[in-house]
Amino acid sequence: KAGVTQTPRYLIKTRGQQVTLSCSPISGHRSVSWYQQTPGQGLQFLFEYFSETQRNKGNFPGRFSGRQFSNSRSEMNVSTLELGDSALYLCASISGTDTQYFGPGTRLTVL
Amino acid sequence: GESVGLHLPTLSVQEGDNSIINCAYSNSASDYFIWYKQESGKGPQFIIDIRSNMDKRQGQRVTVLLNKTVKHLSLQIAATQPGDSAVYFCAETSGSARQLTFGSGTQLTVLP
């Protein structure tokens, strides 16, 4: 089985811009979750989607949003980028037994 | 563990020795625990998991121990190899929630 795919792998943006990150889960998995990883805060939960519905959301501002499509692919969007949004954004594909398998991440740098 | 994420404990072991990485968690309602390995520039890689109805689970060269009384989780790696050098995270969740709470991680370095 192919693993979790995230695109792009690297991204450089400037403050005030917006960005969209994409995630394709493992075939057959219907749920995905997103996490932000920074040196200062570690790994923090952003949100989780199942069958196109957001089921859970972490403690992030409304600038962070996401969606899931009928083929289980997911996107997350960050609007009005701030310097502090620089991070590794990780998508996890969730199995039927709730095990979360992570993709390689998208490294976002905000200048 | 609590996701404080500010201080990364380190563990150095000789190649061939056994490694033990510890994790304390705070939520007594947590019932599913996972260990991940993260190498530089990569996403976390699933190693092994355990549910709260078990005390011990073994995989290939790895064993996870769960002590619910003191809310402690440990990962034992047998015959540690250079390829085991990475940051190791414990993560927990409870009930039907799929929101993982991560510990701050431990940097494992395998010495030749």
Protein traits:
heterodimer; A: 111 residues; mainly beta; 7-stranded mixed beta sheet; 4-stranded antiparallel beta sheet; 11 strands; B: 112 residues; 6-stranded mixed beta sheet; 0% helix
Order of helices and strands of chain A: EEEEEEEEEEE
Cα Rg of chain A: 13 Å
Structural class estimated from helices and strands of chain B:
mainly beta
**Structural class of the secondary structure composition of chain A?**
mainly beta
Largest interface: chains, residues each: A-B, 28 and 25 residues
Determine the N-to-C terminus distance of chain B: 30 Å
Our measurement of the CA-to-CA distance between the termini of chain A, rounded to an integer number of angstroms, reads 37 Å
Shape, principal axes of CA atoms of chain B: globular
What ranges of chain A have pLDDT less than 50 throughout 5 or more consecutive residues?
Answer: none
Please specify the SSE layout and strand pairing.
The complex is a heterodimer of chains A (111) and B (112).
Chain A: E1 5-7, E2 10-13, E3 19-24, E4 31-38, E5 42-50, E6 53-57, E7 64-68, E8 74-78, E9 87-94, E10 100-102, E11 106-110
Parallel strand pairs in A: 2-11
Antiparallel strand pairs in A: 1-3, 3-8, 4-5, 4-9, 5-6, 7-8, 9-10, 9-11
Chain B: E1 10-14, E2 19-24, E3 32-38, E4 45-51, E5 56-58, E6 62-67, E7 72-77, E8 86-93, E9 101-102, E10 106-111
Parallel strand pairs in B: 1-10
Antiparallel strand pairs in B: 2-7, 3-4, 3-8, 5-6, 6-7, 8-9, 8-10
